[in-house]
Amino acid sequence: MEMMRKERIDRGIKVRTEGIYAISAMKEILYLLGPRLLLIVGVLLLPFFLELAPYWKRVINIMFVYSLLALAFDFLANYVGLVCLGGAFFVGVGGYLSAIFNSYFHIPIYISIPLATILGAIFCTLTILPCLPLRGVYFAIVTLMYPLLATRVIEALNILGGTNGITGIASFPHEYVEQYAVIFVMLICLFGMRRFVNEDIGLVIRGVKDNDQAVRASGISITYMKTLAVFIASLMCCFGGAYIAHLYMWAGLSLFALDFSIIPIASVVIGGGGTLVGAVIGSFILVPLSEFLRFFGTFRIVIYCALLTTFIILKSEGIMVYLQRKYHQFERWVKV
Amino acid sequence: MGKGMKDNVIISVKGISKTFGGLKALIDVSFDVHEGEIYGIIGPNGSGKTTLINCITGFIKPNAGQVFFQGRDITGLAPHKIAHIGIARTFQIMRPYYTLPAFKNLIIPLWSPRARKIGGWRGGGKHGDRDTVAVDILEEIGFERDSRVPYKLASTLPTGYQKRLELARCIALRPQIIFCDEVFSGLSMSEIASMLPLIEKLKMDGITLIMVEHRLRELFRVADRVMALNFGEKIAEGDYTEVIEDKRVKEAYLGSEEV
Ligand SMILES: Nc1ncnc2c1ncn2[C@@H]1O[C@H](COP(=O)(O)OP(=O)(O)O)[C@@H](O)[C@H]1O
Ligand SMILES: [Mg+2]
Q1: What is the pLDDT of residue B3?
Q2: A73: closest CA among A59, A89, A61, A96?
Q3: At B183, phi and psi to the nearest 5?
Q4: Ligand 2 centroid from CA A332, angstroms
């Protein structure tokens, strides 16, 4: 009997080596930049296509927010080693802060969002700080408590509008501003983060995940590095929260909804952990899908779970890892 | 070791004890190391060598005793603070940053506040980028610059190179002292011999080395003075010939293995 085996061969282009580029021909430049351009141009043109389907505009805006959250989760989980289930907490803090600035203090939207992003991230980082020595599942569970706790506090003390939330928040001046604001931030974060994790400081942060003892033995405080990482991740999430508050012109308890913690994780699983782009692609698939399934009413969750499970069984590595492999390698069957 | 050296004690360990549950891993261990010397610590498996390094470098808090570095009490400081003042260490269980290429492993110590403050490497690379400095250090420690070895993933390196990488990570920190936890064990005699010039070079640079090894012969002609541990207790100290002739040292290794 003849046995067959799948053989994988790298494409004969030298630029593949991570970090070291030696570009010589137009073809190679295209090979490298092609996928990136496709993503950027596609995303930038999206608002025009949406003119044909106005109902989806809001879904797509939320989708970009989710891709930011997924990006933050992927960064923390796969580059720093912190599995943070507190995404909803970051979103809520960002959203409520922007609401307070805009509705109570009448700070205009183009200042309230950046201010809420930065101050929110500082606040989130400070509150997460005591949990940083925790590892693995313990850190995950404790961070999961944060959004629940925040909801209860607001409910019990009846502050910040209590269960009614804060209303009267300014909306975006124009639909295109609304759409492109989140698109630009998403693109900047995506490419910025990809750059960051390969910078020297990014390598140090990755070292914390790989081998934290050796990082400490190198005279670097791992608490400091983790704090920095949480700050960066919460910047992205707090922006998302502030954006949503202005999008809905309302900040309520649903900003702390667990969806904001869980869907990004599913997106990272689907898209492929540790690739950053995968997180974004994953939410591009999951969020519209989940909206589409609304059509099925409560049955939606069943279909959603069935699809997710099937996907994880069939392509457990994630879409991006799979695509990158296909893109960079030939495959052929050879005799053993 | 001349008598004059006695004054410049760089590290002084006084009465360190450590127990794990009921197990006495270290019992009242004291020793002094002089600046610029190579000090060997030997002992059978489980005699407390690694625990001693962990206590000195802050990874474990001792139950009793103190550690002085240049006269300053550093007992119980956090590991990164101890590294920051110039005390580097290798790990017996090598764990390079597996997902990074070998030379990128050095970026992490080179990025540390200490290395950034001191800067440069052998006069060059003062403002140069860390990648170049990293490859320079690897070359010095025996990675062939023009081969592909420095650029290989750390997880794919053979043991000999991983041990060198472990040491390179310490050197990149520009320390005053390096604690080496069994960098020679698992290497063949010829591999050890090829690393000796490197050790000599570090000594010439004025770095104090504390070399922990399983067996004494691995420290032959390397260590200026040697201390022997057994069941957490210091049983002998002196130069190579004194320790190898010591009755208690012979007993400690008796039956199980040669010194
Ligand atoms: N973290 C720990 N918890 C419990 N026991 C330990 C721990 N570390 C070391 N020991 C015990 O302390 C003793 C000394 O270990 P170690 O310092 O690793 O010895 P050596 O490095 O000389 O082989 C051993 O009996 C070991 O089992
Ligand atoms: Mg040991």
Answers
A1: 43
A2: A89
A3: -75, -20
A4: 48
Question: Touching check for B79 and chain A: CB below 8 Å?
Answer: yes
For chain B, what percent of residues have pLDDT higher than 70? 92
B contacts of A215 (beta carbons < 8 Å)? 80, 108
Domain positions in chain B are 1-86+177-186+208-259, 93-175
Q: Report the gap between the CA of A117 and the closest CA in chain B (Å).
A: 28
User: Ligand 2 mean position to B35 CA, how many Å?
Assistant: 24
Q: Encoding tokens for residue B6? A: 């006695």
Ligand 1 nearest atom to the CA of residue B44, by list position: 22
Average pLDDT over residues A34-41: 86
List CB contacts of B38: < 8 A, sequence separation 6 or more. B199, B203, B208, B209, B210, B211, B222, B223, B224
Query: In chain A, what is the greatest distance between 2 CA atoms, to the nearest angstrom?
Result: 79
pLDDT at A4: 75
Task: Map tokens 């990482």 to a residue.
Answer: A229
Q: Alpha carbon of B33 to those of B9, B68, B158, B178: distances in Å?
A: 6, 11, 33, 12
- Closest residue of chain A to B98, computed from CA coordinates: A210
- In the predicted model, what is the mean pLDDT of residues A132-136? 89
Distance between CA atoms of residues A242 and A245, nearest Å: 5
| Residue B220 near chain A (CB below 8 Å) | no
For residue B42, report the distance from its CA to the centre of ligand 1, in Å: 15
Confidence (pLDDT) at A2? 65
Q: How far is B212 from chain A (nearest CA, A)?
A: 17
Q: From ligand 2's centre to the CA of B97, what distance in Å?
A: 21
Q: Which fold has domain B1-86+177-186+208-259?
A: Rossmann fold (3.40.50)
**A71's tokens:** 């990006």
Query: Which chain A residue is nearest to residue B86, measuring alpha carbons?
Result: A219
Question: Quick check: A207 and B108 CB within 8 A?
Answer: yes
Distance to chain B for A216, nearest Cα, Å: 5
Answer whether A206 sits within 8 Å of B83, measured CB to CB. Answer: no
Locate all alpha helices (DSSP H) within chain B, ordered by sequence. Answer: 49-56, 79-84, 102-105, 107-111, 113-118, 130-140, 159-172, 189-204, 240-245, 247-253
A203 touches chain B (CB under 8 A): yes
Residue of A33 and A193 predicted with greater confidence? A193
Residues A206, B100: C-beta atoms closer than 8 Å = yes
pLDDT tens digits, one per residue of A143-202: 999 999 999 999 999 889 888 889 889 999 998 999 999 999 999 999 999 999 999 999
Give the tens place of pLDDT for each residue, B103-146.
999 999 999 999 888 876 665 555 558 888 888 888 888 888 77
pLDDT for position B259:
57
In terms of CA atoms, which chain B residue is nearest residue A212? Answer: B97
CATH classification for the domain delimited by A4-335, as one of 3.40.50, 1.10.3470, 2.60.40, 1.10.8: 1.10.3470
Choose the mutation target among A80, A197, A218, A225 for the interface with B, i.e. most B CBs under 10 Å: A218
Digit-coded pLDDT (tens) for B37-57: 999 999 988 999 999 999 999
Per-residue pLDDT, B243:
86
Quickly state the pLDDT bin for B214 (edges 50, 70, 90).
confident
